[in-house]
Amino acid sequence: MNTKVIDGKAHARAVREALRPRVDALKSRGVVPGLGVVLVGDNPASRAYVRSKGRACAEVGLHSEQYDLQPTASEAEVLERVHALNADARIHGIMVQLPLPEHVRVERVIDAISLAKDVDGFHPQNVGLLATGHPNLVPCTPAGVVVMLEREGIDLQGRHAVIVGRSNIVGKPMAMLLLQKNATVTICHSKSRALAALTRQADVLVAAVGRAKFIGGDMVREGAVVIDVGINRLPDGKLAGDVDYASVLGRASHATPVPGGVGPMTIAMLLANTVYAAERIAGKMGSE
Ligand code: GUN
Predict the structure, then answer these.
(1) Which residue has its alpha carbon closest to ligand 1 atom 11?
(2) Which of 43, 93, 108, 112 is the most exposed place for a label (fewest CB within 10 A)?
(3) 30-119 and 140-263 agree in CATH topology
(4) Is 120 in the pocket of ligand 1 (CB under 6 A)?
């Protein structure tokens, strides 16, 4: 079977282009959508992600501010930064890059983010809205996967989606979004028995385990759609997904590469969430 390689960069470009008129409309009302990014510590991968998020904002005309805190910053200092961004009228979206250092409680920090500015969709109230079928701000990576599948014309209704990974960032919200699209959803994880027997049932397989080349071609049904959320650094410095890409080519109907697949979509959805948040905040201020 000829595998179609899904071009995440092209889909992300299209998402960004669609944001332009909305950004222009906001600007004509004197509102420049603004994203505040908080980075704690010096994790090189986090640093690289945050840099590309800032660049992407500039490309579509969004304002962005980055706050770098020392790895030793206390929880109180991180909370203080979040509170300042909550109160800042130029900021419509707040993103605290994860992971945080161990001494900072991630749930405390996420709880502190204003619901209206929670462009990661990690606040428990936004998680609850998604789980009850009333999505508001939705986590960027799973949202990007769904948009990419839709733009590829892949119908999800009644199909079996198998997700490997159960993180709050990807696995769990991915399941909620796929359920909303009427897929039949299985979540598996590192403790699942007979994992390959589960993944081989997938019409759509989403790999979000965080282990390089964990999903081999033998775990993929002929004709399945394979979405690789993993970004892992190999000892030689190269990037690899969670899927052994070479072994699914010729087997999957569609597959996303790493890099150039899900990653660019995640960033595009962060911009989309920031524009959406700005529209809602501007609307509530009575200028509509
Ligand atoms: N770390 C890895 N992915 C993400 C994400 O989508 N948002 C945040 N805030 N941190 C992350």
Answers:
(1) 98
(2) 108
(3) yes
(4) yes
Per-residue pLDDT of the chain (288 residues; tens, 9 = 90+): 999 999 999 999 999 999 999 999 999 999 999 999 999 999 999 999 999 999 999 999 999 999 999 999 999 999 999 999 999 999 999 999 999 999 999 999 999 999 999 999 999 999 999 999 999 999 999 999 999 999 999 999 999 999 999 999 999 999 999 999 999 999 999 899 999 999 999 999 999 999 999 999 999 999 999 999 999 999 999 999 999 999 999 999 999 999 999 999 999 999 999 999 999 999 977 544
| Ligand 1 touching residue 96 (CB < 6 A) | yes
Cα(2) to centroid(ligand 1), Å: 33
Q: Which CATH number fits domain 140-263: 3.40.50.720, 3.30.310.40, 3.40.50.150, 3.10.129.10?
A: 3.40.50.720
Catalytic residue among 27, 66, 88, 97: 97
Mind spelling out the 3-state secondary structure of the chain?
CCCEECCHHHHHHHHHHHHHHHHHHHHHCCCCCEEEEEEECCCHHHHHHHHHHHHHHHHCCCEEEEEEECCCCCHHHHHHHHHHHHHCCCCCEEEECCCCCCCCCHHHHHHHCCHHHCCCCCCHHHHHHHHCCCCCCCCHHHHHHHHHHHHCCCCCCCCEEEEECCCCCCHHHHHHHHHHCCCEEEEECCCCCCHHHHHCCCCEEEECCCCCCCECHHHCCCCCEEEECCCEECCCCCEECCECHHHHCCCCCEECCCCCCHHHHHHHHHHHHHHHHHHHHHHHHHHC
CATH class belonging to 30-119: alpha beta
Ligand 1 near 229 CB (within 6 A): no
pTM greater than 0.85: yes
Domain ranges of the chain: 30-119, 140-263
